[in-house]
Amino acid sequence: MFDLSSSWVWDYWFADDGETYHLFFLYASRALHDPDARHYRASVGHAVSDDLITWTPVADAIVRGEAGSFDDLATWTGSTVRGGDGLWYLFYTGSSLAPDGQNVQRIGCATSPDLMVWTKVPGPLLSASGPWYETLADGDWHDEAFRDPWVFADPDGDGWHMLVTARAPEGPAFGRGVIGHAWSPDLKTWELRPPLSAPSERGFGQLEVMQVEVVDGRPVLLFSCLAEHAMPARAAERGGTWAVPAASVLGPFEVEEAYPLTDASLYVGRLLRRRDDGQWLLFAFHNLDEHGAFVGGITDPLPIGWVDGRLTVRESTIRPPAAHPGGLGTLES
């Protein structure tokens, strides 16, 4: 697994340059003592690997901005793609505080010629706005949710799409989480579009860290949400990472059909297709131990496939780490 002895590691995403796998991850110092405090101290770290098991930390990708900028509190989860111009684009969440102390999230970007040295683009690129998306003025929540951008190329060659963790301005508070959507012709300019899902009585208050892929010919959306942030109808399922079948990578997405891919011990499930054999793999971070305490650290790859129409982890047991071994190592499974 990948972990750091001096810092908590949680949300993450990948890039593959054809020779090396790149892992971008959120981390914050354990000197904070309270793991819940990590969110407001998050930076984006970077590690590289040839085999998806042994990782070597390299220079950090980005850190929070100067006072007054849209990302002056913390830099949160995103995704990384290569544009037609040869540059790599790292889309991320910028977090800042409103005057009343509530958290506001917006989407930013940094670019790199080599995935190693990143330059922020003046931002933000996108933020929540009506009539489609909830803002601080609308809600029952402590934050203005507009985060975790997942960017991918249009399957028909029509530019790029971005999925965003967002909420609708109407519907039950813990069911109004929606799949925010934006489109770009060139990864530089973005057009905000209506969400690709709707609030639901069997929905979620937040669909965190979304990813959409076509796994062995079947489109599927992944997101994460814990029971305390979902509608009561979901309480018994105790999911961490959820999967939603879809007709295409642009939906339609029926959130009512979501089913747990992992329990609450694993969060932020990510899919990655291994380069050498085409095998789809699932990763996650260790969220809660048997006592409900935060753990942290990213799992080794877990084989995944379709069973009776559902995406399923093929490992029967996923054991949490016994200790924090540092940046390198493997997870027994």
Compile the SSE list and pairings.
Elements: E1 7-16, E2 21-29, E3 43-49, E4 56-62, E5 74-82, E6 88-97, E7 103-112, E8 119-120, E9 126-127, E10 143-144, E11 146-153, E12 160-167, E13 177-184, E14 191-193, E15 208-215, E16 218-224, E17 241-245, E18 259-260, E19 266-273, E20 280-286, E21 302-307, E22 310-313
Parallel strand pairs: 7-10
Antiparallel strand pairs: 1-2, 2-3, 3-4, 5-6, 6-7, 7-8, 7-9, 11-12, 12-13, 13-14, 15-16, 16-17, 17-18, 19-20, 20-21, 21-22
Broad shape: globular
Highest-level CATH class: Mainly Beta
Largest sheet: 6 strands, mixed
Number of helices: 0
CATH superfamily: Glycosyl hydrolase domain, family 43
Q: Report the mean per-residue pLDDT as an integer.
A: 93
List keywords for this structure.
globular, mainly beta, 4-stranded antiparallel β-sheet, Tachylectin-2, Chain A, 6-stranded mixed β-sheet, beta-fructofuranosidase, beta-fructofuranosidase activity, 333 residues, 43% strand
Overall description:
- One of its GO terms (biological process) is carbohydrate metabolic process.
- Its EC number is 3.2.1.26.
- GO terms for molecular function: beta-fructofuranosidase activity.
- The chain is mostly beta strands and 333 residues long.
- It has a single domain, classed as Tachylectin-2, Chain A (5 Propeller), CATH 2.115.10.20.
- The chain has no helices and 22 strands.
- The strands form 5 sheets. Strands 5, 6, 7, 8, 9 and 10 form a 6-stranded mixed β-sheet that branches. It has a 4-stranded antiparallel β-sheet with strand order 1-2-3-4, with no helix packed on it.
- The N and C termini lie close together (11 Å).
- Mean pLDDT is 93; it is low at 323-333.
